[in-house]
């Protein structure tokens, strides 16, 4: 119901903008070279053929492979181990102020001539947090009791998520600052959109692969059924 309501609000508001908002004819036209969709894609193709851009795209598409499993699977595994979904969702509330403040703080360090330095410095810490998340998943069933989970467990989860947000935003703000810095102002919108799209794709495809691999890589044991393998989903159901 929540998603349906806001989906309807999005559809209505965007439709109203499309119907009622008029372009200001008095403004001077932008200097951007593209005049239509075909020109835009031709321009994108010419940008991505540049050796430096191509190398950067290949790097950014593979840079997030190391922590894709930790990002995508940790929450699901905690729920699988018995942590209530509503409790995990509630832990996201204290993260909101942190998510607002972090870009403001990090932007001071990414405003210089080498914004990617912040990206490089944050990466090893984010990789180490992947190990910490793995420990958290392993530790979860050991602290569970009949009444649920103790308060100190949620404190540890909250601190882990907070540290993760710091490294995540350090890398995110740094890459956005770099994209803004290297984009040609004449075609800034097209150039930066391309780099940001590649950056987003670089975070999404490893997470998708991690989610796809989690089931075949999970070791399962059948309790109370001798000579019954449960390596596949069908066998596990049996």
From TrEMBL:
- The protein's predominant localisation is membrane
Give the top-rank taxon of the lineage listed in the UniProt record for this protein.
Answer: Eukaryota
Q: Which GO terms describe its biological process?
A: acetyl-CoA transmembrane transport
Q: Where in the cell is it found?
A: Membrane
* Any one GO MF annotation of this record: acetyl-CoA transmembrane transporter activity
**Transmembrane stretches, start-end:** 6-22, 43-67, 87-106, 118-139, 151-175
Q: Which Gene3D superfamilies match?
A: MFS general substrate transporter like domains (1.20.1250.20)
Has keyword Transmembrane helix?
Answer: yes
Supply the alphabetized keyword list: Membrane, Transmembrane, Transmembrane helix
Topology relative to the membrane? Multi-pass membrane protein
Asked if Transmembrane is a keyword of the record, the answer is: yes
Gene Ontology cellular-component annotations = membrane
The name on file for this protein is ACATN protein
